[in-house]
Amino acid sequence: xxxxxxxxxxxxxxxxxxxxxxxxxxxxxxxxxxxxxxxxxxxxxxxxxxxxxxxxxxxxxxxxxxxxxxxxxxxxxxxxxxxxxxxxxxxxxxxxxxxxxxxxxxxxxxxxxxxxxxxxxxxxxxxxxxxxxxxxxxxxxxxxxxxxxxxxxxxxxxxxxxxxxxxxxxxxxxxxxxxxxxxxxxxxxxxxxxxxxxxxxxxxxxxxxxxxxxxxxxxxxxxxxxxxxxxxxxxxxxxxxxxxxxxxxxxxxxxxxxxxxxxxxxxxxxxxxxxxxxxxxxxxxxxxxxxxxxxxxxxxxxxxxxxxxxxxxxxxxxxxxxxxxxxxxxxxxxxxxxxxxxxxxxxxxxxxxxxxxxxxxxxxxxxxxxxxxxxxxxxxxxxxxxxxxxxxxxxxxxxxxxxxxxxxxxxxxxxxxxxxxxxxxxxxxxxxxxxxxxxxxxxx
Length: 444
Hints:
Elements: H1 8-19, H2 23-34, H3 39-64, H4 73-80, H5 83-117, H6 123-143, H7 145-173, H8 176-185, H9 187-192, H10 200-207, H11 223-253, H12 255-261, H13 265-301, H14 303-310, H15 317-320, H16 332-354, H17 363-385, H18 392-413, H19 419-439
């Protein structure tokens, strides 16, 4: 049994640290493009999408409080649904969720480091620098998981600085009232145009990560108490920060500037307020923020192959679940597999960015994962019906609202140009996981 390494604070900072820190900084322009520059409609989409994360977290907290087995969502599916479903979810998460997400966040880290050091932020440069950072983060977490947890706590504090500063300055000294009044006057026309629905894809990326912490639930001290608490409190912190930042930066540098400058709008906003030196300092905070997100993802992803191998759901499970006594129980082979898969997706993302593909390779897989969440939401409702859950709100209301939120997010992604490609590949991967779990003698 692995050592209980992380407390409640780390669980909360992991969720908020993974969610806050990358997407909001480079997806705000995408949201505005899909809403035709309507900031108010963008805020509305954020609030609607929050249904999925807030009520999804509340629903998962009911499962988290009833098990501390390794694997997070995989463990929930195994215990409360069946092992074959757990295998399908596990294979999808292993190859189509964590790996592309880590690949994209690594690339974004490279983007901001290029800005900081005046390097041309081409797909090649950003991807190469991002890969170097990824190597360092993996080594950090393999050599010392405790040190990785400490960095996660510190990064959480640092990453709030640029968010809060830009949010407050923009809201108090920008043109928020004028923009809101203007957007409100054309709100009906904006909603009538169906294009804004596609904004759920980048917003799903911005909100993503809240379910990741369940992967290390077996390493959280008193996880049956601490993980549910973290899953309840963290999403509200995320929503508040996001809405404030989105409105703040738009008010500060204008809607058109955010849309035109894209990933560089944060640096422009910081330059406008704090000058060139202050802006570079803010950019450093942003970089630490994004690296904190990457660290949190790696922290969780290292354990995923181990969690599947622990259940015999992967080929070579005996090797993948082997833990290193010298490194306090870190599953080295599991970490190596996670690193290889992440590196492959950095390469795939580079190829798509070099070909000027709309969005990135993680947006659609993230949205597809909400379909798998629905299986677990229904499971919570079944537990309520069986009398395992006493609260009507937790047993029925929260999962129903979480299902509605998930359906909205997935529906909004249907217009994404690569939706059906990823949907087909994801279905094949999940089917392989389902089949392998059954054929390996683990089906229940």
